[in-house]
UniProtKB/TrEMBL annotation:
EC number, UniProt record: 3.2.2.31
InterPro entries for the chain: A/G_AdeGlyc_MutY, DNA_glycosylase, Endonuclease-III-like_CS2, Endonuclease3_FeS-loop_motif, HhH-GPD_domain, HhH_base_excis_C, HhH_motif, MIG/MutY
Entries under Gene3D superfamilies matching the protein: Helix-hairpin-Helix base-excision DNA repair enzymes (C-terminal), Hypothetical protein, domain 2, Nucleoside Triphosphate Pyrophosphohydrolase
Organism: Myotis davidii (David's myotis)
Polar residues: bias regions: 445-463
Catalyzed reactions per annotation: Hydrolyzes free adenine bases from 7,8-dihydro-8-oxoguanine:adenine mismatched double-stranded DNA, leaving an apurinic site
Predominant location: mitochondrion
An example Gene Ontology molecular-function term: adenine/guanine mispair binding
One Pfam entry name: NUDIX_4
Residue ranges of every copy of the HhH-GPD domain listed in the record: 108-260
Name of the molecule in the record: Adenine DNA glycosylase
The protein's role, per its UniProt record: Involved in oxidative DNA damage repair. Initiates repair of A*oxoG to C*G by removing the inappropriately paired adenine base from the DNA backbone. Possesses both adenine and 2-OH-A DNA glycosylase activities. Adenine glycosylase active on G-A mispairs.
Lineage: Eukaryota, Metazoa, Chordata, Craniata, Vertebrata
Amino acid sequence: MKKPRAAVGGRRRKQTSSGEEREKHALSSSQARPTIPDGQARRQEEVVLQASVSPYYQFRDTAEVTVFRESLLSWYDQKKRDLPWRRRAEGEVDLDRRAYAVWVSEVMLQQTQVATVIDYYTRWMQKWPTLQDLASASLEEVNQLWAGLGYYSRGRRLQEGARKVVGELGGHVPRTAETLQRLLPGVGRYTAGAIASIAFGQVTGVVDGNVVRVLCRVRGIGADPSNTFVSQQLWSLAQQLVDPARPGDFNQAAMELGAIVCTPQHPHCSQCPVQSLCRAHQRVEREQLPASQSLPGSPDVEECAPNTGQCQLCAPPTEPWDQTLGVANFPRKASRKPPREECSATCVLEQPRAPGGARILLVQRPNSGLLAGLWEFPSVTVDPSGRHQRKALLQELQNWAGPLPATHLHHLGQVVHTFSHIKLTYQVYGLALEAQAPVFRVYEGQQSGTGKSSKRSQVSTPSSRKKPSPGQQVLDRFFRPHLPTDAPRLNGVAQ
Ligand code: SF4
Ligand SMILES: [Zn+2]
């Protein structure tokens, strides 16, 4: 029987605290009338921002905010990339279809580059053009299309969400950020805000990685953006800035600026529409002035003063300004835990002379946790020291396939794959069975999505470990000598 494994790598959805459930007015066009923001919550956020931080981080007045919005939006109107989800959302009048088009793109874009997503998005929307189509797909089909995008729970949750909308919400996507986040699986604060603003015109700000970078630079925020207080300030700033007439476009513009101008390493400040309001840029210019030219008593607030080390938005005194980084001094890199190390023993159990062609045993992972519901070579988590590895693996194999000849189990090499929080070393074994092997479930190896996502996999074999790294390879290449390339499709249970 299948054993549940430790759930790892999952992203826990934050619950909202707001009790607001009012549906906002829907729009028939992304540029039409905005909905009314939740005034009370917004005022509270602004009060928090203003009461607790230095004026250095705030916009001077509403005129400055207006200049920021207008500059950013007119830049966006000229420079925005023509992306399939934008075209689809802009041309769609049906609100649920429009929300679906945005939802799919936002989920795919989490942790994944635009260039990679385009092709997946196009295939997805061709295969499942509506929420109803997605709701009736199988998880197997969803995983298959998702293969290579990584973070597989995203696809599964997207489908769960579609099923919920179709089965429980009358086919209608919730119309506000608050209800989206509360009712839909896998929809967190960012995704909810993006769908609500882009598809429904709700005036709600969003903060993703690009926006964090832009806002930290624009406001000169040097503290760790993953810190709760800093994150609250960033959401509050985003809410303050979002354009009430074009909230969806504004949010996309802020993200677009981060993606193509205010990039992580080499931002193009000379092409930036908000350069005149950017604290990071001002700081760079000031640092470049010879000391004799710095103007004392400048009319602008040019520093967060006094910097006693108490300010929660300043860079810590232990991390002084680095001249060589320029504006890229912001945002401060979040302190990241190194991935936890795990070890797994896995086996390609092969039946080379099975009737109809060679067969291999693939088994399905549990429906929760890492790579949930995907197919894999049977594997078992083992002690990294390597002790009892063979025994544990053999036991796992026998659970699936019945008694096996232990002496045929050969160690082939190892594959290291880094997931978001786990560095997993697979000790790879092979075992070839005679033609009349016990009954076991088989599945065609080439259909497995697991190997194709191995952009970050490093492969080594006992004979190649001393050689230079063979670079990025996928599991099926690693096993090619063992797999006939013209193997027929083998699904279901075979004898
Ligand atoms: S001026 Fe430079 S650092 Fe500031 S927002 Fe624009 S691109 Fe980013
Ligand atoms: Zn400060």
